[in-house]
Write a structure and sequence with these properties.
Length: 139
């Protein structure tokens, strides 16, 4: 992946974070997911008074994309931190989001965790979710 595309994706994740609805935790997350064809889908965390109904930013972006017909992805960028403040830590995707991504991603899906456009780390999904449980086990 080209560096300028990575930076663009990170910038869009940081922007998507502004839409987060997080009145309970005060922790806002944004995600930007790019398909193989270059379409970008955005997501934010959406909390609920019934905490278990909360949806993470990564799954918001993934479900938006899949519901629009996308099935193949190149990369996802994620940024999170205390509401209204710049990210001070890298926000890694939670276990459920790693599993949800692995359903549609190949092992080489690029995962960018960003503090800012200039400061982000790059992983492959396989590094974050080795030995993933997949559909081949139940087919
Ligand atoms: N959250 C995400 O959006 N993505 C993650 O991968 C981890 C956690 C959200 C859920 C909740 O609204 C807040 O961060 C605190 O857990």
């Amino acid at each position: 992946m080209k560096e300028d595309v990575k930076r663009l994706l990170v910038r869009e994740a940081i922007q998507a974070r502004e839409k987060a609805y997080a009145p309970y935790s005060g922790y806002t997350v944004g995600a930007a997911l790019i398909s193989k064809d270059g379409a970008i889908y955005h997501g934010c965390n959406i909390e609920n008074a019934s905490f278990g109904a909360t949806n993470c930013a990564e799954r918001t972006a993934l479900f938006k994309a899949v519901s629009e017909g996308e099935r193949e992805f190149k990369a996802i960028a994620i940024s999170g931190g205390l509401k209204g403040k710049a990210a001070t830590e890298y926000a890694y995707p939670c276990g459920i989001c790693r599993q949800a991504l692995s359903e549609f991603a190949t092992k080489d899906l690029v995962v960018l965790v960003a503090k800012s456009e200039e400061d982000f780390k790059e992983y492959r999904l396989e590094q974050l979710l080795p030995y993933a449980f997949g559909g081949e086990s139940i087919n």
